[in-house]
User: Which sequence fits this backbone?
């Protein structure tokens, strides 16, 4: 299941980079957690982001693994997933 979550995050990174011309994303580790931040430094969203479809299923999958997901749309799209590090 963890691999599925990472695969979906990678697909999301690709989609954001393709549609918004974003050039930055990354994966980090902090305080026993894995942190997957993704920020659009390209085109700003035209309207607030509504969680549906892919984002909604990504949230459900993230929370089912004990993680959290935050979505922001102002001033730019920002998504952060935090998962407990199984090896910490």
Assistant:
């Amino acid at each position: 299941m963890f691999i599925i979550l990472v695969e979906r995050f990678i697909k999301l990174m690709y989609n954001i980079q393709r549609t918004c011309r974003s050039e930055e994303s990354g994966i980090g580790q902090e305080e026993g957690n894995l942190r997957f931040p993704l920020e659009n430094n390209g085109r700003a969203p035209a309207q607030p982001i509504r969680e549906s479809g892919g984002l909604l299923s990504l949230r459900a999958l993230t929370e089912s693994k004990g993680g959290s997901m935050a979505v922001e749309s102002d001033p730019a799209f920002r998504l952060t997933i935090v998962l407990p590090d199984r090896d910490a």
In short: The longest helix spans residues 2-20. The mean pLDDT is 76. The two ends are 18 Å apart (CA to CA). The chain has two helices and five strands.
